[in-house]
Amino acid sequence: MNWRLAVVPVTLIPIVIIAVQFDIELDDVLAIGIVPFVGAVGAMMAKLGLQGIKFAYITRRYLAGFDSVLRLTGVRVGSEFIKFTTPMFVGAEFIVIYYLHKKGVKPSKSTWIAIMDIVTEVLAGGLLSIAAGIIALASGAYLVAAIVLGTSIFVTTLWMVLFLLSSKRTFQVPRVLASLSVRLGKEKAAKYVKETNTWMEEICSMSRQHLRTPEAKKVFVVSFLISLASWSFYGISFMIISLGPGYVIGAFESIMAVMAANAIGNLPITVGGSGLAEFGIVAYLYNLDPFNLQAGAGTDTLAWDAVIGWRIATYYVPIVITWLLLVKLALSRVSRNQQAAAGGPGGD
């Protein structure tokens, strides 16, 4: 886990490059003001808080009385640290699966809860990003639109197809990969392949059992709506911080710009989308090439001030908070008494 902390300073490199390239000084960023900065941080924490509440809602719907809402919310918020420190913003689901499993919940049910959480998150974010891409396309920003739509449609479709297919067929480790693993790892690899196939079979069985039920549909719809609200708070964070340097942008335009940047940042190129998210917002707003350092030279300097301030408020401040929650809650030890008490509703 310590290596993840080590990569955080690396994510500062794009910000330094932007500051040098466009002559942005510390005073320019500080000119944003404490109130807009705190407001943007607050919007981001509202986004993370809603994600946590959604996870607590899903968990307690399938595991009645399991853990407290506050603790489950904290665990989910803490899990975002993993997403912040990996390309393509993945990894949080493994933390919540680990947390549920160590408290006595069966791996298949833990994974089902995590899947319901991540699928609704991806669908809500994907639809907003696709809307941003369509608007960019209609505005003639063809390069930005192509990147945003390509990334968003691929990721959203992949998750939804796998989610829906899990109720109709049983997924297994591909034979070629399984044979190669066994050939290289012998008996130990064969054991892991067998355990993985059993785990996937149980997940698909749970999907067939729950996916078409009225309860599952209700949980999905409510979770999806919470995710839309969550992403919207993330989107308006840029509008809030832009008020400081006097860069006026509406709430809807802010949400679209941030979601377009989020889609570009999902490209597995940099850790936490560092650099891609910053250039993504400016590229969306000014119809520029998001991969061209020279392209933003003609833009309003105030926009770059706001973008750097936004990145600090929505990435570097939350990364500290999520790390503390991750260590304190998700990765903390669970006593045998707690595990036994929590394990009661974990069966299928």
Largest sheet: none
Q: Please count the helical segments.
A: 14
> Fraction of residues in helices?
over 70%
Count of the domains: 1
Distance between the first and last residues' Cα: 32 Å
Count of distinct strands: 0
Structural class: mainly alpha
Beta-strand proportion:
under 5%
Determine Rg (CA atoms, Å): 21 Å
| Gross geometry | globular
Roughly what is the average pLDDT, rounded to an integer?
82
- Secondary-structure element order, as H and E? HHHHHHHHHHHHHH
Low-confidence stretches: 344-348
Structure description:
This protein is mainly alpha-helical and 348 residues long. The protein has one domain (20-166, 211-337). 75% of the residues lie in helices and 0% in strands. The chain is globular and about 60 Å long. Residues 344-348 have low confidence and may be disordered.
